[in-house]
Amino acid sequence: KMGAVGAANAMAAAIRGKGQSPGARNTRGNRAVQASKSYRDTSGDNTAEGAEALYNSRNTHLRKTLEKHLNLNDMHIGFEQGDGHTTPLIEPLPLFDSIKQTTVALIINNKSFSCHLCLTKERVCFSRGGDHRTMTDYIPLEEVDKVEALQEGHWSITSSPDGINSGRVYEFRNLHSDETLTQSQEGAPVPATLNRSTSDTSGVHEESGIWVNEIMQARERKHLREHSFMARAQKWCRFIYDSNPCQIFIAVLIFANFFIVCVDAQARPDEPNSEYAHLGYYIDKLDVFFTCIFIVELFFNMFGHWFVDFVQNPWSIFDVVVVTISAIALATTNVPGVSVLRSIRALRVLRLAGKLRSLKRIITALMASILPVLNAFVIAIIVASIFSVLGVEFFKNRVDANGEPINDFLTFARAFYTLFKVMSFQVWVDEGYPVLKPTNVTASDGEIIQSFTIDFLVLFYLVCLVISVLWVLLQVVVAVLLDNFVQATQKEERMEAVKRLNDAEDANLKTGGLEPLLKKMSNLFDTSQQLTFGIARLFFVLDYDETGYVNFQELKEGVKKLNCEPRINLQWEDFNIVTEHGELLNHRGELSFLKFDVMMRKQLKVYVQRHLTDVLAIAQRSHNIENQVMISALRFMVLQQKEDNDNDKLRQRVKRIGDRLKNLTNFVQDPGGGHLRRVTFNSSSTSSPERSPMDGGGNPGTHHNPHKPP
């Protein structure tokens, strides 16, 4: 197969060379020489280097391959932010966070390419080809092994062999930013921070030394930030505080403190003539001990997680409030009116929810249920208020046997209070029942006895209240509470499951090791064209030397630098799987752009199929018939797509063969081709070639039927 491809390429090259003049065959070389000569005549050797870098950046095999399929200017928007919450897969050049930036010539395999170079506090970034919208490579400052200035304005960066760049050496040459920058953007807008002009050609060699010093100083500063005593101490504090033994020890202290608070409330040793007065001394000392321990624990937590992690954790803020109030109450023991703050000690036990995962899940679910429950509770309050208004209107004139007004429904507040007693199934003895109306009854001996009669209108009114509020609305409140509690609990469980899944994806080799990349890609495109732009941009980043092909080493080093979590560590087994055991590779073991596009689309499709299968299994366990049918249909459609695509390809291939046969027939039967032979076909005998009438041979009366296929 490879031999046939090589022979076809050789024949095509021979045909192209045969049909061109020697001058035309050397057009590319002539353009490069003329461009370099014009730059050399105006600005010297370094601008000639810039012309060569600009020409090489625009005339690589990679760019010519991509230009056949898409617009390079549109390619740089591939895999941008999808829904506003997903970070881009390939980051732009961080120009506005840079310490120093310039335009240089990146030398790869003795060829120079125009490149934007940018130094930040964390890494050295550059954009090969000159478009700042795509950061093609970067070197973390902690992985810079050596930076040295070479001769004639050249300088190099050697990366660490154990880092993400695997010991690669980057060689640069300084250029004039005003002569190469705007030309190499290929239509992309030039940021204002890069519109600098340097006309002094003598400063190019000095600029190399400046860059070497800047990178070395930035590396030292980052080393001091990450390996200083404070940084190591903070990392150590965080590790110790987040460990399980430390959290269990803090939880035991919180529970012991709560037990002492309960004993203090029961014994009340501060009361005069208390039989437990001797316990007051020990309780006060233990209170001081626990408060000091919690203050130390708070500062330990604050130092280890400062600043963002500490502030964004609501349990840490709760710790600050409780511990601060406890410290104030301890410091102001003898101040009148402030001792009430000691009651805040009872809230310390709630800090257990931030230490124990099971309690934390319950408290978080309850907090998430507060707002929906309040909405349902407001509806119940409104209905009760309506009944209170109706009670005032209907029963405000009720009187007892002595003509005194009955106060149950005299005002709105009194009516609401009466209805609240009814809803709580509680009645105060001295106030009587609202459904009973007192009357005076004369006994047989003439004695007047107070009795009660049932007020059926009030009874009907209260029955309607109980049915509408107690049996319906309050049950709705409970149902909303349970529903939101279950949803919040399931959300916490899903978050923990996703975290465990992400931890396991890094070691997953059965999917080709590209699981984080495929997961990120699935959220960064909406149409097939956007997917094409994204795959082309990804291939542009991975093809470091711009040969138009990507091998295993380039793919392994390139995917490490993509904005994926967790970071992809591609192995040879992974590469063998995604390339279908070498079927997509050429004879040199490399992927072309078309094969890379096929590989990524197939892996993305397999990723979708696998997740549909997982979701279908979850739906089957939950006995959700509707979701099972829907997901099964989607899974069948995805699986059927390959067969439909194969059929479409077969139909297109048959159509192309038919078109070629038709063109061949027209070409053979061309009456203007005096030196061509016409091929005729006889249905009754074997077809035989005959001379065309134009050649003076054959049977002039025999004609080929154009409607009958040869």
UniProtKB/TrEMBL annotation:
<feature type="transmembrane region" description="Helical">
    <location>
        <begin position="288"/>
        <end position="308"/>
    </location>
</feature>
<dbReference type="InterPro" id="IPR005821">
    <property type="entry name" value="Ion_trans_dom"/>
</dbReference>
<dbReference type="InterPro" id="IPR027359">
    <property type="entry name" value="Volt_channel_dom_sf"/>
</dbReference>
<feature type="transmembrane region" description="Helical">
    <location>
        <begin position="320"/>
        <end position="341"/>
    </location>
</feature>
<protein>
    <recommendedName>
        <fullName>EF-hand domain-containing protein</fullName>
    </recommendedName>
</protein>
<dbReference type="GO" id="GO:0005248">
    <property type="term" value="F:voltage-gated sodium channel activity"/>
</dbReference>
<keyword id="KW-0106">Calcium</keyword>
<feature type="region of interest" description="Disordered">
    <location>
        <begin position="181"/>
        <end position="202"/>
    </location>
</feature>
<dbReference type="InterPro" id="IPR002048">
    <property type="entry name" value="EF_hand_dom"/>
</dbReference>
<feature type="transmembrane region" description="Helical">
    <location>
        <begin position="248"/>
        <end position="267"/>
    </location>
</feature>
<feature type="compositionally biased region" description="Polar residues">
    <location>
        <begin position="23"/>
        <end position="37"/>
    </location>
</feature>
<dbReference type="InterPro" id="IPR011992">
    <property type="entry name" value="EF-hand-dom_pair"/>
</dbReference>
<dbReference type="GO" id="GO:0001518">
    <property type="term" value="C:voltage-gated sodium channel complex"/>
</dbReference>
<dbReference type="InterPro" id="IPR018247">
    <property type="entry name" value="EF_Hand_1_Ca_BS"/>
</dbReference>
<dbReference type="Pfam" id="PF00520">
    <property type="entry name" value="Ion_trans"/>
</dbReference>
<keyword id="KW-0812">Transmembrane</keyword>
<feature type="transmembrane region" description="Helical">
    <location>
        <begin position="362"/>
        <end position="390"/>
    </location>
</feature>
<feature type="region of interest" description="Disordered">
    <location>
        <begin position="15"/>
        <end position="48"/>
    </location>
</feature>
<dbReference type="GO" id="GO:0005509">
    <property type="term" value="F:calcium ion binding"/>
</dbReference>
<feature type="domain" description="EF-hand">
    <location>
        <begin position="530"/>
        <end position="565"/>
    </location>
</feature>
<keyword id="KW-1133">Transmembrane helix</keyword>
<keyword id="KW-0472">Membrane</keyword>
<feature type="region of interest" description="Disordered">
    <location>
        <begin position="665"/>
        <end position="710"/>
    </location>
</feature>
<dbReference type="InterPro" id="IPR043203">
    <property type="entry name" value="VGCC_Ca_Na"/>
</dbReference>
<feature type="transmembrane region" description="Helical">
    <location>
        <begin position="458"/>
        <end position="482"/>
    </location>
</feature>
